[in-house]
Amino acid sequence: MFSKETYIGRRKVLMQKLQGRGIVLLPGNSEAPINYHANTYRFRQDSTFLYYFGLPISDLVGIIDTDTGEATLFGDDFTVEDIIWMGPQPRVVELAEQVGVKHTAPLAKLEPAIAEAVARGREIHILRPYRGDTRLMLEKIVPDAFLAPSEMLIQAVVAQRDKKSAEEIAEIEKACAIGHEMHLTAMKMCHPRAQEREIAGAIEVIALMKGWGTSFHSIVSQHGETLHNHSYNGILKEGRMLLVDAGAESVSNYCSDFTRTTPVSGKFTTKQKEIYDIVLAANNHAFSVSAPEIRYVDVHLAAARIIVEGLKELGLVKGDVEKAVSAGTHALFMPHGLGHQMGLDVHDMENLGEQYVGYDAETPRSKHPSCSACRMGRRLEAGMVVTVEPGIYFVPELIAKWRTESTCAEFVNFAAVEKYLDFGGIRLEDDMLITETGNRLLGKRLPITTEEVEAAILPS
Ligand code: GLY
Ligand code: MN
């Protein structure tokens, strides 16, 4: 948690943006049962609640009154019954004091407070709930007229959260340092006959020992072509590559997100190195062109150009590179976007709606195949944190579909591509801060050239 002044300052900015527009209602998360009520998933606070009210504690609701400038924290004090199981707990007034909130009330007073505000003709602004219990609670206490997510509130929250302050960057860098250790550990353990499961376990322990835990389910797989592969059942085989996409949260819930791809045999084959170096060139190129005012969709397309050029040199792509990129040929090999914003969420603010976080009126979401999978397209601004994660994958089912449907047949040499059906996939992901003059890498760079990666693997 930051000092109370941080949260007071953040709420003040939000109040000023919505001045005179009524009540902002920000529910925190509740505990979520796994298989019976008392056996819960690890509690993770809602990120917008964390941003304005800082408290990583369940069953709290924050209200910001944009007319009076006052915030109220609704919550119930723990009873002796709770304390028997959980130990002594701070009272709601003490929690409120930690984040500079002067007014508190029990949860039972929330519904009447909303009803009274509505009766006095005031607006209620909410965000889109992403959990069932929050949705049910809002449906119970918020009149239908205000149940749709407030565009005004979403835009104000995004405008604030997408520019990271120095103290937020310091937290993200803590998460990057943990992520660094996780990935070095995975590289060291990458040997024939090692189990994906033991590598996944070893790196997740680091996230728990050094921070809050992982920022998402780690991807640890020698089937890197499956983008979000959450199975850890594989046993590493000579000749394959291990793709690890994993990150950590700092104790204050700021995230990191890195991907590296390591040869199981200890050395990349020529075929692997050729593809790897194209992905690396795309990653480096993204860093060389990202700066304020540059649209991220254009950085995505610049990376796509590098990928298509490289694959053309290998004979997998043919024809004019520019036309191939315009037709979306790269989507056969990289069926995802170059990156996403990162902060309190690993995909920062994704719950608020991609059209507000990754796009805007100037850069609306496109359905065009060259960028249809991009989460982030709009102009970069100083203070934004984005991931840079180009990849090249050979997905047999996708290749077969494109061949059958003659998709981009003018640009794809299918006979050559089909020699890579058992190749797997390579992704190289780093985290980038946009600065006033350009950008900088967050954290110390993990081994990334083929030589650096080979040197990071411990002899088996
Ligand atoms: N690192 C996982 C993702 O960005 O989706
Ligand atoms: Mn990512």
Summarize the structure in words.
With 460 residues, the protein is α+β, with helices and mostly antiparallel strands. The protein has two domains: 4-161, Creatinase/prolidase N-terminal domain (Creatine Amidinohydrolase, Chain A, domain 1, 3-Layer(aba) Sandwich); 166-456, Creatine Amidinohydrolase (Alpha-Beta Complex), CATH 3.90.230. Helix content is 38%, strand content 13%. The chain has 16 helices and 17 strands. The protein has helices spanning 4-17, 47-53, 80-86, 92-98, 110-119, 132-141, 151-161, 166-189, 196-210, 270-289, 296-313, 321-327, 354-357, 396-405, 414-417, 450-456; strands at residues 23-27, 33-36, 39-40, 61-65, 71-74, 103-105, 124-125, 213-214, 219-221, 241-246, 248-249, 258-263, 385-388, 391-393, 425-427, 430-434, 439-441. It has a five-stranded mixed β-sheet with strand order 6-5-4-1-7. A three-stranded antiparallel β-sheet has the order 9-10-12, with helices on one face. Strand 16 and strand 17 (439-441) form a beta hairpin. The two termini are 42 Å apart. The mean pLDDT is 97. The chain binds glycine and manganese (II) ion.
